[in-house]
Amino acid sequence: MTTPDTPETFDSHMTSASLGHDATSRGGDVGGLSGTGSEALWEAHADWWQSEFTDGADPEYEEQILPLARQLLDGFSHILDLGCGEGQISRLLASHADAPTVIGLDPTRAQVDAAGERGGGAAFAVAGAESLPHPDQSFDAVLACLVFEHIDPLEPAIGEVARVLRPGGRFALFLNHPLLQTPGSGWIDDHMVDPPEEYWRIGPYLVESASIEEVQKDVFIPFVHRPLSRYVNALSANGLHLVEMHEPAPPEGFRAKSPFFEAAAHIPRLLVLVCERSGDCECSGDCECSGDCERSGDCERSGDRADRFGP
User: Fold this and answer.
1) Domain presence at residue 93
2) Which of 88, 188, 225, 245 has the maximum number of C-beta atoms within 10 A of its C-beta?
């Protein structure tokens, strides 16, 4: 991204750690962010993420992401937090009164070490999304919060999510809004026309791209942009069917940071896709669908997650 945060433009492109930092970028092929180079960047900048976006430092996490994650995962008993960072969402979910089993995975050793030190009831391990160290159908819910924008290729990781989810399980996928936060998008205050106009510019949405973004001075983070159809089609191809979609407005605490942020209050920065895994129903004969409802809402026990997904 090269759009500056000035009175003329407002760039609100998100990264996995940030929902509102300016960024310059160094472009690359879509396949160019995997491997040791990307991993080294995350290792090098783990402390930046921990100081800027955890322990109440970031209003978008505090006011929007954490409450929404807890709401969407409430009632599930075995939860995988994929790309958990230093574990703040894992800790939140593990603190629930029902005490679910929560496992957080992240490929960055520095993040996992910090998660272990901070504790909170969840278990943590180093692992990448392309090869999850768990048997088939191990979890009744998987969460990935602002993670898949940094994973390339996409399809193997989606396939692994589907593999470890039990039939009827939930996948909550938090994303930078693929359309409205396309690289090159931003708030425009145009004084070249009379009268002046203010509007949200959309970047080249259909162009898939990979870049290394400077999200803060000397802090470089890998990022992949894909159109929404890539995500939805990959989910569907792996039996993960969309049941809910959320596009919340930026929260008050974020908008208060700048008048330019307030000007773009009607532009969502976050997209959350909530999917359910299809497959044989595990209702043990209590379901009218006769064992093959694909969790489409036909099952009378769709809300009784604890019974469906025991240890």
Assistant:
1) yes
2) 88
CATH, residue 112:
3.40.50.150
- 46-227-141 Cα angle (round to 5): 60
Contacts of residue 213, defined as CB under 8 A and 6 or more positions apart, other chains included, come to 1, 13, 15, 23, 24, 25, 26, 220, 221, 222, 223
Nearest CA-CA partner of 205 in 13, 7, 31 = 13
Residue type, 114: A
Whether the Cβ atoms of residue 236 and residue 228 lie closer than 8 Å to each other? no
List CB contacts of 210: < 8 A, sequence separation 6 or more: 27, 28, 29, 30, 31, 32, 33, 152, 222, 223, 224, 225
Q: What is the amino acid identity at position 238?
A: N
Q: Strand pairing partners for 241? A: 276
Query: What CA–CA distances, in Å, run from 135 to 28, 77, 297?
Result: 35, 16, 27
Angle between helix 36-44 and helix 46-53 axes, rounded to 10 deg: 50
Whose tokens are 């792996």? That residue is 238
Our count of domains for the chain comes to 1
In a domain? residue 40: yes
Please write the tens of the pLDDT for every residue from 81-140.
999 999 999 999 999 767 789 999 999 999 999 999 998 999 999 999 999 999 999 999
- Total Cβ atoms within 10 A of residue 198: 13
Q: Is position 304 within any domain?
A: no
Integer Cα distance of 158 and 147 in angstroms: 12
Residue 120 in domain: yes
State the alpha helices, DSSP H only, in 185-247.
Answer: 228-237
Enclosing domain of residue 170: 34-186+227-278
pLDDT tens-place string over residues 151-182: 999 999 999 999 999 999 999 999 989 998 88
